Protein: DUF4219 domain-containing protein
Amino acid sequence: MTNGGGGGTSLVFPMLKRGDYTNWAMVMEVNLQAASLWDAIEDAAVSRREDKQALAALLRSTPPEMHPMLIGKGSAKAAWEAIKVQHQGNHYKKFATLRPPILVTEWSWVFIRDLSMTKNSWSTAERH
Structure:
């Protein structure tokens, strides 16, 4: 799949495949920069034409089953974010799902330890 971008160059937009998001995102960023469309991903304040060109590039590089969802996002920037979350995952959610019980336990232990140290300090101070 090629795009006749500016300057007579032809850009190849790779198809997004499961497990290859990082490589796909790097190549797409360079391609969109070369086509002067990356601003549509970084900044929503671009012309409607530039936004639609960037969205069209994303559609050319994603599986057809993703197209309705991406078009529904309304902008290239929102579509890019949706692809990122879908393929990379929301790291906060993963972290929050996996770590809180451990963090709570660790922080509880620190709190209890510090509390007991504080009690011991007060007891020692009261004796003097």
